Amino acid sequence: MKQDTAPLSPADDPGALKRAYSCFPSGVVAVCRQAPATVHQSSPTPVGMSASAFSTVSLDPPLVSVCVRQESSTWPLLREAGELGVSVFAAHQGELCRQLAGPPDARFDGVEPLVRPGGAMFLPEAAAHLLCTVAAEIPAGDHTVVLLRIAELRSDPGVEPLVFHASTFRALEARRALDG
Description:
Blueprint: H1 14-22, E1 26-27, E2 29-35, E3 45-51, E4 54-58, E5 63-69, H2 75-79, E6 84-88, H3 94-100, E7 114-115, E8 121-122, E9 128-140, E10 143-155, E11 163-165, E12 168-170
Antiparallel strand pairs: 1-11, 2-3, 2-6, 4-5, 5-10, 6-9, 7-8, 9-10, 11-12
InterPro entries: Flavin_Rdtase-like_dom, NADH-dep_flavin_reductase, Split_barrel_FMN-bd
Organism: Gordonia caeni
Pfam family, one: Flavin_Reduct
């Protein structure tokens, strides 16, 4: 057996930790809702964000998770909603994903989201739409792990998803199963 002689970096080195995390590809989603009109805002306002730390959790009950930075100014506006729309970005939506990660007042410029009666919002042309409610929030270091319970969904496995890997967007490659 070959011995590993490459040095390991300490986990408290943020650069090394980010490089290690970037080795794992993840799906990218948008979490959105329409905030109702208020005294200060005469019409409903779209609220949303991109999240690259998205994972499926459970089939029974149907759960997914997103990780949100503790400093997020958007999550407090989303968490108070009765329902949230989670859109799994399609491969061609990289620019839209960046836009939803940008300045809050410009996130929905040029976007016509699909709005549900309860306020959940979905992005058109996404690979999947998940209508969710917040099931739990678990503090985890500088983030909060948010468990979302899926109430309704639609999906199209034929739509290629957007994948985030090594700090950039990538495409998936279908590989043939080996005969054997």
